[in-house]
Write a structure and sequence with these properties.
The protein contains 4 helices and 11 strands; from the N terminus they run E-E-H-H-E-E-E-E-E-H-H-E-E-E-E. Strands 1, 2, 3, 4, 5, 6, 7, 8, 9, 10 and 11 form an 11-stranded antiparallel β-sheet that branches. It is an alpha+beta fold. The chain has one domain: Thiol Ester Dehydrase, Chain A, CATH 3.10.129. Strand 4 and strand 5 form a beta hairpin.
Protein backbone atom coordinates (compact mmCIF):
# COMPACT_ATOMS: atom_id res chain seq x y z
CA UNK A 1 0.00 0.00 0.00
CA UNK A 2 1.29 3.43 -0.88
CA UNK A 3 1.48 5.95 1.93
CA UNK A 4 2.89 9.45 2.11
CA UNK A 5 5.67 8.16 4.39
CA UNK A 6 7.05 5.94 1.59
CA UNK A 7 7.33 8.77 -0.91
CA UNK A 8 10.77 10.13 -1.75
CA UNK A 9 9.26 13.16 -3.44
CA UNK A 10 5.91 14.87 -3.33
CA UNK A 11 5.06 17.96 -5.36
CA UNK A 12 2.62 20.76 -4.75
CA UNK A 13 -0.96 20.75 -5.99
CA UNK A 14 -1.13 22.49 -9.37
CA UNK A 15 -3.77 22.91 -12.06
CA UNK A 16 -2.79 22.02 -15.62
CA UNK A 17 -3.69 23.85 -18.82
CA UNK A 18 -5.05 22.37 -22.04
CA UNK A 19 -3.59 24.28 -25.00
CA UNK A 20 -4.97 21.61 -27.36
CA UNK A 21 -8.58 22.42 -26.49
CA UNK A 22 -9.12 23.76 -30.02
CA UNK A 23 -7.91 20.53 -31.72
CA UNK A 24 -11.17 19.57 -33.41
CA UNK A 25 -11.80 15.84 -33.64
CA UNK A 26 -9.48 14.97 -30.75
CA UNK A 27 -10.29 13.96 -27.17
CA UNK A 28 -8.63 17.20 -26.05
CA UNK A 29 -11.50 19.20 -27.54
CA UNK A 30 -14.70 19.44 -25.45
CA UNK A 31 -17.22 18.36 -28.08
CA UNK A 32 -15.39 15.25 -29.22
CA UNK A 33 -14.44 14.25 -25.69
CA UNK A 34 -18.08 14.44 -24.54
CA UNK A 35 -19.14 12.18 -27.40
CA UNK A 36 -16.95 9.51 -25.82
CA UNK A 37 -18.24 9.96 -22.28
CA UNK A 38 -15.80 12.51 -20.84
CA UNK A 39 -16.88 15.71 -19.09
CA UNK A 40 -14.71 17.77 -21.41
CA UNK A 41 -11.42 17.88 -23.26
CA UNK A 42 -8.53 16.01 -21.64
CA UNK A 43 -5.08 17.45 -20.92
CA UNK A 44 -2.50 15.94 -23.28
CA UNK A 45 -0.12 13.21 -22.15
CA UNK A 46 2.99 15.31 -22.80
CA UNK A 47 1.75 17.90 -20.30
CA UNK A 48 0.92 15.26 -17.68
CA UNK A 49 4.35 13.64 -18.09
CA UNK A 50 6.05 17.03 -17.84
CA UNK A 51 4.26 17.55 -14.53
CA UNK A 52 5.93 14.35 -13.27
CA UNK A 53 9.44 15.32 -14.39
CA UNK A 54 10.40 17.29 -11.23
CA UNK A 55 10.10 14.06 -9.24
CA UNK A 56 12.52 12.32 -11.62
CA UNK A 57 15.01 15.19 -11.84
CA UNK A 58 14.97 15.68 -8.06
CA UNK A 59 16.12 12.10 -7.55
CA UNK A 60 18.64 11.61 -10.37
CA UNK A 61 19.87 15.18 -10.91
CA UNK A 62 21.91 16.16 -13.99
CA UNK A 63 22.95 12.55 -14.63
CA UNK A 64 19.47 11.86 -15.94
CA UNK A 65 20.00 14.17 -18.93
CA UNK A 66 23.35 12.56 -19.75
CA UNK A 67 22.08 8.97 -19.70
CA UNK A 68 18.59 8.30 -18.39
CA UNK A 69 15.26 6.80 -19.43
CA UNK A 70 11.59 6.88 -18.55
CA UNK A 71 8.33 5.31 -19.68
CA UNK A 72 4.85 6.67 -18.88
CA UNK A 73 1.46 4.99 -19.05
CA UNK A 74 -1.64 7.18 -18.94
CA UNK A 75 -4.48 5.58 -17.02
CA UNK A 76 -6.92 8.38 -16.21
CA UNK A 77 -7.96 11.66 -17.79
CA UNK A 78 -7.21 15.09 -16.34
CA UNK A 79 -9.35 18.12 -17.11
CA UNK A 80 -8.07 21.66 -17.43
CA UNK A 81 -8.00 23.40 -14.05
CA UNK A 82 -8.15 20.11 -12.11
CA UNK A 83 -5.57 20.02 -9.26
CA UNK A 84 -2.94 17.28 -9.49
CA UNK A 85 0.45 16.58 -7.95
CA UNK A 86 3.41 14.36 -8.72
CA UNK A 87 5.17 11.99 -6.36
CA UNK A 88 7.82 9.29 -6.56
CA UNK A 89 8.85 6.08 -4.81
CA UNK A 90 11.75 3.66 -5.28
CA UNK A 91 11.40 0.15 -6.66
CA UNK A 92 14.94 -1.23 -6.45
CA UNK A 93 17.10 0.94 -8.70
CA UNK A 94 14.06 2.26 -10.57
CA UNK A 95 12.10 5.35 -9.62
CA UNK A 96 8.33 5.06 -9.93
CA UNK A 97 6.80 8.47 -10.64
CA UNK A 98 3.06 9.07 -10.52
CA UNK A 99 0.55 11.88 -11.00
CA UNK A 100 -2.55 11.85 -8.81
CA UNK A 101 -5.75 13.80 -8.24
CA UNK A 102 -6.92 15.14 -4.89
CA UNK A 103 -9.17 12.11 -4.34
CA UNK A 104 -6.16 9.81 -4.76
CA UNK A 105 -7.03 8.70 -8.30
CA UNK A 106 -3.90 7.95 -10.34
CA UNK A 107 -3.70 9.62 -13.75
CA UNK A 108 -0.27 8.49 -14.93
CA UNK A 109 2.38 6.00 -13.82
CA UNK A 110 5.97 6.13 -15.00
CA UNK A 111 9.22 4.30 -14.37
CA UNK A 112 12.59 6.01 -14.72
CA UNK A 113 16.24 5.15 -14.25
CA UNK A 114 19.81 5.79 -15.31
CA UNK A 115 21.41 4.21 -18.36
CA UNK A 116 21.07 4.31 -22.13
CA UNK A 117 21.21 1.81 -24.97
CA UNK A 118 20.49 -1.77 -23.92
CA UNK A 119 20.53 -0.77 -20.25
CA UNK A 120 17.38 1.29 -20.85
CA UNK A 121 15.43 -1.45 -22.65
CA UNK A 122 13.65 -4.58 -21.48
CA UNK A 123 10.78 -5.53 -19.16
CA UNK A 124 9.90 -2.76 -16.72
CA UNK A 125 12.25 -0.35 -18.52
CA UNK A 126 11.65 2.27 -21.20
CA UNK A 127 10.20 -0.37 -23.55
CA UNK A 128 10.74 -4.03 -24.34
CA UNK A 129 11.66 -4.58 -28.03
CA UNK A 130 11.16 -8.34 -27.68
CA UNK A 131 7.40 -7.66 -27.55
CA UNK A 132 7.41 -6.33 -31.12
CA UNK A 133 5.44 -8.41 -33.60
CA UNK A 134 3.59 -10.48 -31.01
CA UNK A 135 0.15 -8.85 -31.11
CA UNK A 136 -1.24 -9.37 -34.59
CA UNK A 137 1.19 -7.32 -36.63
CA UNK A 138 0.14 -9.12 -39.83
CA UNK A 139 -3.58 -8.83 -39.10
CA UNK A 140 -4.33 -5.10 -38.89
CA UNK A 141 -3.61 -1.82 -40.68
CA UNK A 142 -2.16 -3.50 -43.74
CA UNK A 143 -2.01 -0.11 -45.48
CA UNK A 144 0.64 1.05 -42.96
CA UNK A 145 3.63 -1.30 -43.24
CA UNK A 146 6.29 -1.68 -40.58
CA UNK A 147 9.25 0.58 -41.23
CA UNK A 148 7.21 3.30 -42.93
CA UNK A 149 8.91 6.60 -42.16
CA UNK A 150 7.79 10.22 -42.58
CA UNK A 151 10.32 12.73 -43.89
CA UNK A 152 12.81 13.73 -41.15
CA UNK A 153 12.01 16.80 -39.09
CA UNK A 154 14.68 19.46 -38.66
CA UNK A 155 14.02 21.57 -35.57
CA UNK A 156 15.68 24.08 -33.28
CA UNK A 157 14.04 24.24 -29.84
CA UNK A 158 13.66 27.75 -28.44
CA UNK A 159 12.45 29.37 -25.24
CA UNK A 160 9.33 30.68 -26.96
CA UNK A 161 8.74 27.37 -28.73
CA UNK A 162 8.72 25.38 -25.48
CA UNK A 163 6.67 27.95 -23.53
CA UNK A 164 3.31 26.36 -24.36
CA UNK A 165 4.32 23.04 -22.83
CA UNK A 166 6.02 24.55 -19.79
CA UNK A 167 3.18 26.93 -18.99
CA UNK A 168 0.44 24.31 -19.36
CA UNK A 169 2.38 21.86 -17.13
CA UNK A 170 3.23 24.61 -14.61
CA UNK A 171 6.88 23.63 -15.05
CA UNK A 172 9.04 26.43 -13.61
CA UNK A 173 12.41 24.68 -13.41
CA UNK A 174 15.24 27.09 -14.25
CA UNK A 175 17.11 24.52 -16.35
CA UNK A 176 14.46 24.99 -19.06
CA UNK A 177 14.51 28.78 -19.05
CA UNK A 178 17.92 30.10 -17.92
CA UNK A 179 21.00 28.48 -16.41
CA UNK A 180 21.60 24.73 -16.41
CA UNK A 181 24.55 22.47 -15.55
CA UNK A 182 25.40 22.54 -19.29
CA UNK A 183 25.48 26.32 -19.59
CA UNK A 184 22.34 27.58 -21.30
CA UNK A 185 18.79 26.26 -20.93
CA UNK A 186 17.79 22.80 -22.15
CA UNK A 187 14.72 21.51 -23.95
CA UNK A 188 12.03 19.84 -21.79
CA UNK A 189 12.10 16.13 -22.69
CA UNK A 190 8.40 15.96 -23.54
CA UNK A 191 8.84 18.57 -26.27
CA UNK A 192 10.37 15.75 -28.32
CA UNK A 193 7.11 13.82 -28.00
CA UNK A 194 5.28 16.80 -29.45
CA UNK A 195 7.52 16.72 -32.52
CA UNK A 196 7.28 12.94 -32.89
CA UNK A 197 3.50 12.90 -32.59
CA UNK A 198 3.27 15.49 -35.33
CA UNK A 199 5.09 13.15 -37.71
CA UNK A 200 3.00 10.12 -36.70
CA UNK A 201 -0.22 11.97 -37.52
CA UNK A 202 0.74 11.79 -41.19
CA UNK A 203 -0.11 8.06 -41.17
CA UNK A 204 -3.63 7.52 -39.76
CA UNK A 205 -5.10 4.01 -40.01
CA UNK A 206 -7.93 3.16 -42.39
CA UNK A 207 -11.51 3.24 -41.08
CA UNK A 208 -11.59 -0.45 -41.97
CA UNK A 209 -9.43 -1.03 -38.89
CA UNK A 210 -10.08 1.88 -36.53
CA UNK A 211 -12.84 4.18 -35.34
CA UNK A 212 -13.00 7.28 -33.17
CA UNK A 213 -10.21 9.67 -32.21
CA UNK A 214 -6.74 8.34 -31.37
CA UNK A 215 -5.67 7.85 -27.77
CA UNK A 216 -2.04 8.40 -26.77
CA UNK A 217 -1.81 5.55 -24.27
CA UNK A 218 1.87 5.53 -23.33
CA UNK A 219 5.31 6.66 -24.42
CA UNK A 220 8.97 6.38 -23.46
CA UNK A 221 12.23 8.25 -23.93
CA UNK A 222 15.92 7.42 -23.58
CA UNK A 223 18.16 10.49 -23.18
CA UNK A 224 21.85 10.28 -24.05
CA UNK A 225 22.76 13.99 -23.91
CA UNK A 226 20.95 17.21 -22.95
CA UNK A 227 19.19 18.94 -25.84
CA UNK A 228 20.14 22.62 -25.72
CA UNK A 229 17.87 25.45 -26.77
CA UNK A 230 19.00 27.30 -29.87
CA UNK A 231 20.83 24.29 -31.34
CA UNK A 232 19.68 22.44 -34.51
CA UNK A 233 18.59 18.81 -34.35
CA UNK A 234 16.99 16.20 -36.62
CA UNK A 235 14.22 13.78 -35.64
CA UNK A 236 13.71 10.61 -37.68
CA UNK A 237 10.75 8.35 -37.00
CA UNK A 238 9.53 4.95 -38.22
CA UNK A 239 6.80 2.45 -37.43
CA UNK A 240 8.37 -0.17 -35.16
CA UNK A 241 5.33 -2.27 -34.23
CA UNK A 242 1.56 -2.49 -34.57
CA UNK A 243 -1.17 -4.84 -33.48
CA UNK A 244 -4.43 -5.41 -31.67
CA UNK A 245 -5.51 -5.25 -28.03
CA UNK A 246 -8.75 -6.53 -26.53
CA UNK A 247 -10.77 -3.65 -28.03
CA UNK A 248 -8.19 -1.52 -29.76
CA UNK A 249 -5.70 -1.40 -32.59
CA UNK A 250 -2.41 0.43 -32.17
CA UNK A 251 0.66 1.82 -33.88
CA UNK A 252 4.00 1.95 -32.01
CA UNK A 253 6.25 4.66 -33.45
CA UNK A 254 9.97 4.87 -32.66
CA UNK A 255 12.17 7.90 -33.24
CA UNK A 256 15.77 9.02 -32.99
CA UNK A 257 17.11 12.54 -32.43
CA UNK A 258 20.58 13.53 -33.64
CA UNK A 259 22.55 16.76 -33.27
CA UNK A 260 24.33 18.81 -35.95
CA UNK A 261 27.31 16.39 -35.83
CA UNK A 262 25.08 13.37 -36.40
CA UNK A 263 25.47 12.19 -32.82
CA UNK A 264 22.40 10.50 -31.34
CA UNK A 265 21.11 12.37 -28.28
CA UNK A 266 17.77 10.65 -27.68
CA UNK A 267 15.53 7.79 -28.78
CA UNK A 268 11.88 7.33 -28.01
CA UNK A 269 8.65 5.45 -28.59
CA UNK A 270 4.99 6.35 -28.42
CA UNK A 271 1.78 4.43 -28.98
CA UNK A 272 -1.35 5.68 -30.74
CA UNK A 273 -4.43 3.55 -30.11
CA UNK A 274 -7.94 3.51 -31.60
CA UNK A 275 -11.05 1.51 -30.86
CA UNK A 276 -11.11 -1.39 -33.29
CA UNK A 277 -13.67 -0.92 -36.04
CA UNK A 278 -15.11 -4.39 -35.33
CA UNK A 279 -15.34 -3.89 -31.55
Amino acid sequence: MTTDSTRLYEGEWRTLGNPSSDSMGSIHEDGTAREFGFKGGLVTGSIVATRAMPAIVSHFGPRFFEGGWYGFRFIGGIYEGEPVREFAELDGDVLVAKVEKQDGTLCAIGRAGLGAGEAALGPERAWDPTEDGRRGVDDVMLDIPLGVSPDPLEFTPTLDGTARLREAAREDGEWYTSASPWGGPICPPEQLMHYALGLARRHPPSEVDAKGPPIWSHHALVIEAPILLGRPYVLREWLADKGRGSRTVFLNWQFEVTDADGRRVATGRHRRSWFAADS
